[in-house]
Amino acid sequence: MEMLARIVGSIMMDVIPEADNAYEAIDRYCAILYKRIKLKDNAGIDYERDLELFLFLNGYKSKIAEIIHKQTMAQRGGLK
């Protein structure tokens, strides 16, 4: 799962290049998806695919947060 989380994070960094890290990229994209889902729901448009992607990405947020935390601690010398 960690490898897939890294791949998802890397892809999201390509989608949202201005994000500082993978977690922020996923968080920003999920916010965009949430708004799109709400708009489609209000307009009566099918939003199933957007919802699936939203739930998929949210599932990886905690794992990516762990990875980023480990990397940050290793850079600071706090994790050996």
Protein model, in words:
Helix 1 (2-15) packs across helix 2 (22-43) and helix 2 runs antiparallel to helix 3 (48-76). It is built from 3 helices and no strands. It is elongated and about 50 Å long. The model has no long low-confidence stretch (mean pLDDT 91). It is an all-alpha fold and 80 residues long.
Q: How do you describe this structure in short?
A:
By secondary structure, this protein is mostly helical.
Shape: elongated
Beta-strand share of residues: under 5%
pLDDT averaged over residues: 91
Span between N and C termini? 22 Å
Low-confidence region ranges: none
Radius of gyration, CA atoms, in whole angstroms: 15 Å
Total strands: the figure is 0
H/E series: HHH
How helix-rich are the residues, as a percent range?
A: over 70%
Number of helix segments?
3
List the helices and strands and how they pair.
Blueprint: H1 2-15, H2 22-43, H3 48-76
